[in-house]
From TrEMBL:
This is Cytochrome C. InterPro entries: C-typ_cyt_methanol_metab-rel, Cyt_c-like_dom, Cyt_c-like_dom_sf. Pfam families: Cytochrome_CBB3. It comes from the Bacteria. Residues 40-125 form the Cytochrome c domain. The lineage of its organism: Bacteria, Pseudomonadati, Pseudomonadota, Alphaproteobacteria, Hyphomicrobiales. It comes from Paramesorhizobium deserti. Keywords: Heme, Iron, Metal-binding. Residues 135-148 have a biased composition (Basic and acidic residues).
Amino acid sequence: MNSHADDKETAAAVSDEDGKYFDKDGTPTFNIKEDGTVDWYTYSGYRRFNSECHVCHGADGAGSTFAPALANSLKTMSYADFLQTVAEGRQNVGSGKENVMPSFGDNKNVYCYLDDIYIYLRARAVGDLPRGRPAKKDDKPETAKEQEASCMGG
């Protein structure tokens, strides 16, 4: 894993492609308006995380006895490392404890929404997004509808 540090300044959105935001390095990021409205991808990531990942990683990425708090992990995990870990899984064995992250590379409900999940967790990690369901969200962009249909086979 590469050394990586994320914070509000690093995660700041500088570009927007049909409602999907990117930071200065071209990494997907979130956009939360002053009134609390989140971009579609942050909202979608919330939904996907809380349907597929929360069982081990806890509600809102807060962690559990099974798996780490991703709302903290993403402060130091790069986008590339996140994608690789979710797709391939990871196994940490040591000090009498075994942690296994299964591979989700074949789960369309995860891999079709990897960016969304990353964006949501990034918003949680740098502290801009409180716990719980975002109260307001932007409409789903056409690009998101097309990508979803293409990936899910619909």
